[in-house]
Design a protein that fits this description.
The chain is of the alpha+beta class. The chain has five helices and nine strands; from the N terminus they run αββββββαββαβαα. The protein has a five-stranded mixed sheet, sandwiched between helices. Strands 2-3 form a two-stranded antiparallel sheet.
Length: 156
Amino acid sequence: MSGRGKGLEGICEAWLRGTGACWFRNEPKMQGGYRVAGGTPDYTALKGGVLHLIECKDGSGASLRLGCLEAPAGEKKPPAGISPAQAEMLDACEREGGRGWVLARLSGPAGEVTALIPWAKWRGWLAAGLRSVPLVWLAASGDAAWQEGRLPGDRP
């Protein structure tokens, strides 16, 4: 594993192994040795008959970029964070009874936090027009299951 975010993906895989879920990594599409923008979140997990999609987002600085729900007009590149295609996939998963998550890590002047944020919360930030969130928001919005080493919805 190399590149930004790969360390967080390793942490996600170790956590998923400990949950007892059936899971796999959704490898990004490649073309000519370059990553092609796609819409599938990083991980798919199944536990107790519930499908979970998990996207990992890693950042540094005072706040973490959220992304966007819709593609920018014209040829503009979407901002860093959740892509419109990923948002669409996470929305579809939840419409069908699954659960969407963003495993977010932010390292900055105020410290470091890793939190499992429900997609509904992340989506709400985007829908409200937020472009980034500070470390304290991530820490306050994470699901306790992450710290307990289980998938949300599992009994403690």
